[in-house]
Amino acid sequence: MDYVSALVPPVVMAVFFTGLIVTIVKTQGGANKAKEDAAVDAAISRAEAVRQTPEAGGA
After folding, report:
1. Burial level of 52, CB count in 10 A (0-12/13-18/19+)?
2. Angstrom distance (rounded) from CA 53 to CA 33
3. The pLDDT of residue 54
4. Transmembrane segments in this chain: where (predicted)?
5. Left (φ > 0), alpha (ψ -120 to 50) or beta: where does 29 sit?
6. Fewest CB atoms within 10 Å of the CB: 8, 15, 31, 47?
């Protein structure tokens, strides 16, 4: 019966890990995807605008 007690922890961890991966995959996209994409696009636009603005005391 030692082999059963040796196999239980890895099997339990594998089941929980599989559940975690399934949950992550299922929550990608969905109803909030457009809102998340818009937030990322806005942040990138702000970062590019700041980078392209010439400095006031520049050379």
Report:
1. exposed
2. 30
3. 65
4. 6-25
5. left
6. 31
